[in-house]
Write a structure and sequence with these properties.
The termini are far apart. A hairpin with a 2-residue loop joins strand 8 and strand 9. Strands 1, 2, 3, 4, 5, 6, 7, 8, 9 and 10 form a ten-stranded mixed β-sheet that branches. This protein folds into two domains: 178 residues, Alpha-Beta Plaits, CATH 3.30.70.2660; 36 residues, no CATH class. By secondary structure, it is of the alpha+beta class. The C terminus is likely disordered. It is built from four helices and ten strands.
Length: 244
Amino acid sequence: MVPKRQTLEVWGDLACFTRPEMKVERFSYPVITPSAARAIFDAIYRKPKFRWQVTAIEVLEPPRYIALRRNEVKDRVPGADTITQWAMDKTEPEPLWADGDKAMLGTDQKGRTQRQTMALKNVKYRLHAEIKPWLEYRSELPGMEAQFRRRAAAGQCIYQPYFGCREFPAYFDMCDADIEGSNAMQDTHIGWMLYDVFDLSAPGASDSKPSISLFNANIKHGVLRVPDYNSPEVRKPSWRSTDD
């Protein structure tokens, strides 16, 4: 059973798809990454029976950068187990203070820090993706695709999709357009680009510890073609150069 292409037009005022080599200061790729695109589809429809495979990204607006200075909290949100305990009223929720530090609050919290961000503004993309069900659920593919289309057409989502950072909301609309290309972005060799931050090769892998993968990204006629995660074009932690 061959998966059908599912297409979304997405847009927003701001976006930041952070280049990992920039470390502390955020500097965005000029175009959305496959990981961020997959997260938008996940926000609309997600089940443990399948994974999303992004196949192509069309750039509908030229990349425009904007410099921002933001306050970022240095502490991390507690893990899923802690949140579950809070939800079940087994432990008392602990607030994450944006202002203050140990000297001020008497806790080990680290407070916040100002960081520079080179973000994108007025972004718009057409995202193409397929549902890839795990082996035992392949017979359910038509039902999964129909449910996604119903949800997307009605504007329903599990949580608000976003462009890289949760404070940059993404708006979406279902469409049936083919890959047409555009003149919004010239042919560009981006180089090594983040593909995903999880291992997408097995069920439940996206809920495990991070596993960074990369691919050699090229924009042609405004389209970024995305190889399958299992393709040799995608470099994963297990890959080793033949020159080693």
